[in-house]
Amino acid sequence: MKSKRKLLLQSALLVVLILCTVAVVRCQRPTPYRKDTGLIFGTVYNITYQYDKNLKDSIETELKKVDGSLSPFNKQSVIAKVNRNENVKVDEMFTHVFNLAKKISAETNGAFDITVAPLVNAWGFGFKNDTQPTKHAIDSLKQLTGYEKVNLDGATVTKDDPRMMLDCSAIAKGYACDVVAAYLRKLGVENFMVEIGGEIVTQGINDKRLPWKIGVTKPVDDSLNTNQELQTVLNVTNKAMATSGNYRNFYYKDGKKYAHTIDPATGYPVQHNILSATVLADDCATADAYATAFMVMGLDKAKAVLNRHPELMVYFIYSDEKGRNAVWFSPTMRDKIIE
To answer: Would you say residue 9 has pLDDT above 60?
Structure first.
């Protein structure tokens, strides 16, 4: 009888030992990295994160919230209703982006301007237009642009002219990256990279236990988006990164190149010497907007803004006096350059 009890006790202890061993092994097994890819805002997103379950459906829910607020191509979005002058109360996402856009517009003397949509469309970008605008048409459309002419009165957008249109394309992808990053942080995800149409937010380390490294593409004419040659590689861990350039979104007409970045002050595509502007900031909406603004401003004016905003890190590829590609980066960017 005693030997039987002893055997039962030993068996019970063995079961407990096995269960404990399994639990320890499970705890020691690293949480897998997952990679989700899809389409949003007419572009591709790629999101890598370390978590114990797949979050693609939840992530897409967050992205659709941004689309429902800020996409001018979504006829039911808040911004589309604002553009149609419907009686709509804007949501928190729209309010945040609108206020940030106004702030950066003021900081860049209007080089960044979310009211530039009519000019963008007139030049054949955004909603396509096959006819090139005349000087008279540009002058007329300039009367319908200007960030000072739109404001928020509570939750209602007011316009100096009801024909004015808003377009957040130069800040919305960056903001969407911030939204997804905030969602992942809320779940306790420590390691991730969120990339939407080239705008990026990272945190922690990648699946090789190394800092997140992002390449900056050489600015060569590449409307088909096939060029993969890199100018440099940056360490962007725990930062947001956005790049703006005129080497992918452009067209030729009558032998002349027209780039998609429109200068709100002139109403014409920019002709400045910056070919590519990469900005690192604490949030991607800010990086996205400043990257666009710097493309409009050109090198000298961009440097003046950076003197007032040392928190921004930049890497510019520009055309020098002899037409050769050259590089200028802010002193704070030096430690981020890997190769």
So the answer is: no
How do strand 199-203 and strand 240-245 relate by DSSP bridges? antiparallel
Phi, psi (rounded to 5 degrees) for 101 = -60, -45
pLDDT tens-digit map of 161-170: 999 999 999 9
Tokens of 107: 């900081």
**H or E element at residue 159:** strand 156-159
Q: Please give the Cα distance from 196 to 113 (Å, whole number).
A: 21
Classified as helix, coil or strand, 76 is: coil
Which of 318, 272, 266, 319 shows the shortest CA–CA distance to 298? 272
Distances (CA, A) of 52 to 26, 27, 49, 177, 189: 12, 12, 10, 21, 10
- Segment 10-37 shows an average pLDDT of 63
pLDDT(224) > 60: no
User: Could you report the per-residue pLDDT of 324-336, keeping only the tens digit for each?
Assistant: 889 999 999 999 9
Q: Which residue, chain included where needed, has tokens 């100018």?
A: 231
The pLDDT value given to residue 21? 46
Other Cβ atoms less than 10 A from the Cβ of 286: the count is: 24
Q: What letter would DSSP give residue 7? A: H
Region of residue 101 (left: phi > 0; alpha: psi -120 to 50; beta: else): alpha
* CA separation for the pair 332, 306 (Å, rounded): 11
Query: What is the signed CA dihedral for 162, 163, 168, 170, rounded to 10 degrees?
Result: -140
DSSP per-residue string spanning 197-265:
TTEEEEES--TTSS--EEEEE-----TTS----EEEEEE-TTSEEEEEESSSSEEEETTEEEES-B-TT
- The pair of three-digit structure tokens given for residue 203, joined into one six-digit string: 């945190």
Q: In Å, how far are 74, 86, 100 from 158, measured between CA atoms? A: 21, 11, 17
Closest CA to 64 of 53, 50, 74, 55: 74
Q: Is 119 left (phi over 0), alpha (psi -120 to 50) or beta?
A: alpha
pLDDT of residue 95: 98
Across the range 193-200, mean pLDDT stands at: 96
Q: How many CB atoms lie within 10 A of CB 304?
A: 12
